[in-house]
Amino acid sequence: MIVTEKRCDLMVIGCGMAGLAASLFAAGRGISTMVIGHTGRIRFFSGLMDLMSVYPISTGKNWEDPWAAIHSLSTDKEHPHPYSRIHPAGIQKAMDEFLSFLSESGLPYHMDSNQNQSVITSQGTLKQTFAVPHTMMAGVDAFQEKEPCLLIRFPELKGFSSRQIQETMNEIWPSLRSIDLPFPNHFHELFPEQMARELENPSCREKLVISILPHLKDTSAVGFPAILGIEKSMEVHADLEKRLGVRVFEIPCLPPSMPGLRLQMVFQHQLARLGVQAFFQQQVDKVTALDTGGFLLYAGEGMDQIRIHARGVILATGRFFSKGLAAKRTGIRETVFNLPVYQPENRTYWHNPDFLACSGHAINMAGLEIDDSFHPLDKNGQPAFPSLFAAGSILAHQDWIRMKCGSGLSIATAYAAVEAFQKQVNGHDL
Ligand SMILES: Cc1cc2nc3c(=O)[nH]c(=O)nc-3n(C[C@H](O)[C@H](O)[C@H](O)COP(=O)(O)OP(=O)(O)OC[C@H]3O[C@@H](n4cnc5c(N)ncnc54)[C@H](O)[C@@H]3O)c2cc1C
Question: Is 111-260 CATH 3.40.50.300?
């Protein structure tokens, strides 16, 4: 067996939004950082950066101002949402730093810092979100002004129907039209990634534009499923706008999501440039807490084992789908450190008998309890380890899907966990 020994100051466990954000923030502060985990989950990410729009869940109250929503949830002292432990200025800084990084990496976002924006979904509904990728922004503007728009559907792409969007939105947006067009050069079923890569080829775009032009009429913007390129999405988007002579926008569609893949690729390239060593598609199998206060982590498969000595760890392993939490007959457990998990007393209460109840399910509020420094707590309510921090959806007292706070939760808590780690390092000269 070959054992490779590694050392770093901070080990981030998890390559979802929280783990990637933590790695970025740590590297930006000069902390020697490593990150480990599977990147596949990020391909589910729609591209929309939610900060906060629904609270309380039981009434489904929708907030236009995400900061007012965050202020409102801070009144719940008994079950504090992780946002309640971060000053709003810290949440804003985290979002700004993260979005600036994406912008500098070729994935610019648009936001109105005091107001959520309404984005059309592939179901023909509207979704409130905080920051919108540049490639989707013309759709937000067009909806606001109810401009005449043309939506394109490619029959080869399953799960996206511009006709459905048009019919569902007909009352509030009557000047929306839709057409079906064959995807250039193809007559069979296609996958989004294939189509996105094809569109990076100028000749494919030219053929597409030629087929759209006769249908433009009074259209001021054209909407496509979110397949406008992967590494060259900005170029594809700009070129289509130029050739069509109108604004162009993407509509988020079902996974695998191209905006998610773009984000994954940006991180894969940029983390290496920032000096973060990443162990993608690997997992931590075992951790030993050392007397020095640090950790020894074991990863790797078969004959190739990796042993990583880290002074501190940020645990960003997500929930059940990502295996950060595991649901057993005896209860819910945390899978890496075996930390206590806040959860309903009994399995019977995990799910609401009314599956579609607005109040959601108690199991979605399960997760790690933390202190104000983002240390997960042990069964006595004390920090489990001085150098262990947690971030992202593994934290208790949030239901990010219903509250529409997924990305913001991951980014802001990653920021807070990195700051807490750095404070500890400075205080103790580890
Ligand atoms: C279907 C879907 C749609 C979404 N849409 C939106 C949206 O519209 N807007 C929005 O803002 N956000 C959206 N999100 C993304 C959301 O922001 C994040 O998924 C969520 O915030 C959780 O991120 P996370 O990093 O905490 O956990 P996850 O994304 O679940 O990542 C957990 C990571 O931990 C790793 N891991 C687990 N165990 C181990 C181990 N033992 N060793 C190493 N690694 C381990 C996993 O491999 C994974 O990399 C969507 C996500 C999904 C799944």
Answer: no
What is the percent of the chain where pLDDT is above 70?
99
The answer to whether 295 and 36 are in contact (CB under 8 A) is no
Q: Does residue 300 have its Cβ closer than 6 Å to ligand 1?
A: no
Rg (CA), the chain: 23
Instruction: Go through 226-249 and write b for each residue having 16 or more CB atoms within 10 A of its CB, e for each that does not.
Output: bbbbbbbbbbbbebbbebbebbbb
Q: Is 407 in the pocket of ligand 1 (CB under 6 A)?
A: yes
Residue 238 CA to ligand 1 center (angstroms) comes to: 30
For ligand 1, the distance from its centroid to the CA atom of residue 163, given in whole angstroms, is: 31
Q: 2-104+309-405 has which fold?
A: FAD/NAD(P)-binding domain (3.50.50)
Instruction: Answer whether 2-104+309-405 and 111-260 agree in fold.
Output: no
What is the side-by-side order of every strand in the sheet holding 149-153?
176-180, 149-153, 221-225, 247-251
Closest C-alpha residue for ligand 1 atom 49 = 15
**Which of 351, 353, 317 has the alpha carbon at shortest distance from 333?**
317
- Interval 197-215: pLDDT, tens: 999 999 999 999 999 999 9
Q: Is the pLDDT of residue 186 over 80?
A: no
Domain segments of the chain as ranges: 2-104+309-405, 111-260
- Cβ 41 under 6 angstroms from ligand 1: yes
Which protein residue's CA is at the shortest distance from atom 2 of ligand 1? 44
CA separation, residue 309 to residues 82, 289, 298, 336 (Å): 28, 10, 9, 16
Q: Which residue carries 């189509």 as its tokens?
A: 195
Q: Residue 145 Cα, ligand 1 centroid: separation in angstroms? A: 34
Question: Which tokens go with 370?
Answer: 């933390």
Tokens of 103: 């912008």
The closest residue, in CA terms, to atom 43 on ligand 1 is 283
| C-beta 98 within 6 A of ligand 1 | no
